[in-house]
Design goal:
This protein has helices spanning about 20-35, 50-55, 60-65, 75-85, 95-105, 120-130, 150-155, 170-180, 180-185, 195-200, 210-215, 215-225, 230-249, and strands at about 10, 15-20, 40-45, 70, 110-115, 135-140, 165, 190. The protein has about 250 residues and is α/β, with parallel strands linked by helices. The protein is globular, with a radius of gyration of 17 Å. The structure holds uridine-5'-diphosphate.
Length: about 250
């Protein structure tokens, strides 16, 4: 809830979007990490799925509206901002933010890895220690129900983490970070989808060419049967943007 005055904030379908590139994102998060007051902040990397889901889930919409930083995860959001605001919004995808923070801050980071199937976050943590020298504040898998939210939030709050990676799937992860923000109390909390899987090596990062074009979702959808139903949803998003543009006149 603290968009800085010099960082323009747009609205896309009632959700905020900060116009900020990857490098400035890393600098801003670095400031939050360095603040001795350890004020908690939540980060959302916005994608079309979030926009579509949040329309029918008020709790999810609230978590995005209350986020301290909302970056454009992919090309779908860049497209929507161009269509609806004639703005060129740079991308700051979740994985690039997490890797960039680890590269810049290494051993200053006390990371809590929350999410993915049992065992995967352990592997992610081991690799992050090996590759970036981060300190592991804690680890928990992402398969627990709402009745365990408070227990897990307290575990994280007591861990002394300064970076929380919450990778439990779009919606669940943003709502968890937003609802428990006070108990979590972590200076930087990011909802970051499949990032723990990628760090663990159980999922591959999309190839560089798709990342350069900003279309890594094409690769993900094509390579994962579970995601085949998402392609029509992305087309729906394009339709939604067109309709909104007509409505705005
Ligand atoms: N995940 C989890 N708990 C759940 C559902 C998913 O920890 O209840 C993890 C899953 O194992 C994966 C990550 O969340 O590591 C992203 O999942 P998925 O790709 O299905 O979600 P998306 O972010 O693409 O919606």
């Amino acid at each position: 809830m603290s968009p800085s005055p010099h960082r323009p904030r747009l609205r896309l379908f009632d959700l905020p979007l900060d116009v900020i590139n990857l490098s400035d994102t890393l600098t801003l998060l670095g400031d939050w990490l360095a603040d001795p007051a350890r004020r908690p902040h939540t980060v959302v990397t916005l994608n079309p799925e979030i926009i579509v889901q949040a329309r029918s889930h008020p709790e999810f919409a609230r978590a995005v509206q209350d986020a301290d930083l909302v970056t454009a995860d992919g090309v779908g959001i860049v497209y929507a901002a161009r269509q609806l605001h004639a703005e060129e919004v740079p991308r700051a995808p979740g994985f690039d933010i997490v890797r960039g923070l680890m590269q810049r801050h290494g051993a200053e980071l006390r990371v809590f890895f929350l999410g993915a199937k049992p065992g995967v976050a352990e592997a992610a943590a081991q690799n992050a220690v090996r590759d970036y020298g981060v300190v592991v504040a804690g680890i928990h898998h992402g398969y627990f129900g709402p009745e365990d939210d408070e227990r897990v939030a307290r575990l994280i709050g007591d861990s002394g983490a300064n970076l929380l990676l919450t990778a439990m799937g779009a919606g669940r992860q943003e709502v968890f970070n937003g609802q428990w923000r006070g108990v979590l109390g972590v200076p930087v909390m990011i909802g970051c989808g499949g990032v723990i899987d990628v760090l663990a090596g159980t999922a591959e990062l999309a190839p560089a060419w798709t990342r350069k074009l900003g279309v890594e979702w094409v690769w993900r959808v094509a390579g994962d049967r579970k995601r085949w139903n998402r392609a029509p949803r992305l087309l729906n998003f394009v339709r939604m943007v067109r309709a909104e543009k007509r409505r705005k006149g």
